[in-house]
Amino acid sequence: MIYVTGVGPGSEAYLTRRAMDVISGADILIGGQRHLDTLAGLSSEKRIIDADINSLIKWIAERLDRRIVILASGDPMFFGIGKRISDTFAPEQVQIVPGISSVQYLCSRTGMDMNDIYLTSSHNRTPDFDWLLSHERIGMVTDSQIGPKEIAAEIRQRGQTRRIIIGENLSCRNERITILNASDAIGDYEMNVVLIDKQGSVASR
């Protein structure tokens, strides 16, 4: 059986009880190095996720008689590995354990409701900024190629006035949340998610 388990935005404090139960019973734990390091005390066999997902899928398929837990940042079905696993294996072979996404967490920290936010990601994709910035509010999980600085440049290029909220290392000890006008977002930021607000109505907390 394969469990794709959301581990939240970063801190173990945001692991759900269900996620902890699944992880503690794993024969094999698969995840990024950061996640595996936090679970170093478990005796499970461990494998790091790398860019070669096809090889990982083949490796998993040869071990379906074991309890395999794949650790996914945030929520597995929010631009995560959950979709790939669900599309590859039969429904009876996979269970998805939801987690708290980084966008959920950042909205809760800044008091922004999620009712009408367009949610997206820049991981391994180039957003259509003309279409994207036609939305009032956007939540974007970023990567090293398209982050706050690049998003802000696209906003300025279109002559828009936007406020952006940058959440770095969310839920961790070095968490930092910055709220500023897009015109001022010119620096480099650590692992982050970005909220874009056309009205600029979100107050700092």
In short:
The chain has 205 residues and is of the alpha/beta class. It has seven helices and ten strands.
The helix fraction, in percent, is: 25-40%
- Radius of gyration, Cα only, in angstroms? 18 Å
Strand order of the largest sheet: 3-2-4-1-5
The residue ranges in which pLDDT falls below 50 over 5 or more consecutive positions are: 201-205
Alpha-carbon distance between the termini? 43 Å
The average pLDDT is 92
Order of helices and strands: EHEHEHEHEHEHEHEEE
What coarse outline follows from CA principal-axis ratios?
Answer: elongated
The secondary structure category is alpha/beta
Summarize the biggest pleated sheet: 5 strands, parallel
The strand count comes to 10
Report the β-strand fraction as a percent range: 15-25%
Helical stretch tally: 7
Keywords:
205 residues, 5-stranded mixed beta sheet, elongated, disordered C terminus
Written overview of the protein:
The chain has 205 residues and is an alpha/beta fold. It has seven helices and ten strands. The strands form two sheets. A five-stranded parallel beta sheet has the order 3-2-4-1-5, with helices on both faces. A five-stranded mixed beta sheet has the order 6-7-10-8-9, with helices on one face. β8 and β9 form a beta hairpin. The longest helix has 10 residues. The protein is elongated and about 55 Å long. The N and C termini lie far apart (43 Å). The C terminus is likely disordered. It comes from Providencia stuartii. This is Cobalt-precorrin-7 (C(5))-methyltransferase. GO terms for molecular function: protein methyltransferase activity.
